[in-house]
Amino acid sequence: MVNITRAADLTEVGANGAGWTSALGTASPADPLIQPLSPWEPLGAISDDGLVQGFDEDSQEFTPWGFTSPIRTTITKSLRTFKITAWETGRTTVRSLQYRIPVEDLAPVSGLTTFAETASPEPDRRAFWFIVLDGDTSLGFYVPEGEVSDRADVTHKQDAMAGFEWTITAYPDSSGNTVYHADRVPPTAAYTGS
């Protein structure tokens, strides 16, 4: 009989988590169990859809004449994204990301915040730090150069929480990396055949 190896402590359910943003060049907290401090700014409450880590890749296969199977495959596209829905739509940092406006331009005057959305937005790259927590498992994702590249419609109605649903695209940094991982996971036991 074959013994099937399983380890429940090596599974992960995204039970909790959070996100922060800061200016380009801000160093990563480097550990998902370290509280990010200023200049990192929290994104606040995130919807129960959690964090979606996206992989979008394309490849080109090369099949020689006379063959029916390729002898080589080359990756032609490798894109990393993160999707969240920020529920704290009144948080200055969140509004800044949604509308591509500097945080300082969103300071209220006599309780009133005014701004205009431009028809020709400029790039708005920032650093991002996301964590996912589940018991002894803690995952950290540092995006040194990210940008909100897609925004979903915002619904304002009585029976739904308004939220800013974003896709954040990770761009290569000066080292050519898009995402840095800092994970605390239980050790994998040595395989003994059982």
Question: Which helices and strands, and how do they pair?
Answer:
Elements: E1 16-22, E2 41-42, E3 52-62, E4 72-86, H1 92-99, E5 126-134, E6 137-151, E7 164-170, E8 180-184
Antiparallel strand pairs: 1-2, 1-5, 3-4, 4-7, 5-6, 6-7, 6-8
Question: Could you characterize what this model shows?
Answer:
There is one protein chain. With 194 residues, the protein is mainly beta. It contains one helix and eight strands, in the order ββββαββββ. It has one helix at 92-99, and strands spanning 16-22, 41-42, 52-62, 72-86, 126-134, 137-151, 164-170, 180-184. Strands 1, 2, 3, 4, 5, 6, 7 and 8 form an eight-stranded antiparallel β-sheet that branches. The mean pLDDT is 94.
Could you write a compact summary of the structure shown?
The protein has 194 residues and is mainly β. It is 4% helix and 37% strand.
